[in-house]
Amino acid sequence: MGASAALLSAAGVIGAVVAMMVDGRRAVAIAVVFLAAGLAPTAATFGGAPGVAVLGACAIAAVLLALAGSIAGRILPWLSGLDPTIPAFAPSDRLFGPRSSRAFGAAAAIPVASWVSFNVPIGQITTAVQGLLFPIAYAWTCGVIRLLVARTLEDLAVGVAMVSVPTGTAWLLRSGGDSFPGAVLACVAAPLAAFVAGWLNGRGGRRTHSRVEAEG
Question: pLDDT category, 77, cuts 50, 70, 90?
């Protein structure tokens, strides 16, 4: 790969690693923002400004929907609270397992993404994108790994977002400007995951607040 391809890969890898390691109640929105920023140079290469706009809109929508979901979860009286950061299969002092497992997964994703980037055909422009698929393949592989090691609903939502954004970017590479509708549809899952996580966080926060008031 040339220098430009190396820069594209570096940006994508940084975004994917941040998304892989981020924790907390705003993890989904943070993951989407970093993934969109990391994959934006690749999207710009084959989709131009509209391709970057797709990822930018995805990131903005994720942030806004996460906020809207959190507010709605605290205000609306539907359903009982469910904290998405509480582990289902781990001690209460952990989230979804040690970060070392995700760091190992991020390292293991490098050779997988490298092989995919040079051997998987992408639509009508296979020769043009050979090797340039690496940042997309890496982010997508990390997303699958995070889904596999998920122990909380928040982590599942992050994994869905990590699969959604690279899939939308890959769709841009598939047929350039003709693939914007497909790319938008693929990216929609990320803001929706952010909304669901925000809603659950809002409901969980409301339940905690109500319990504190009752004890007081």
Answer: low
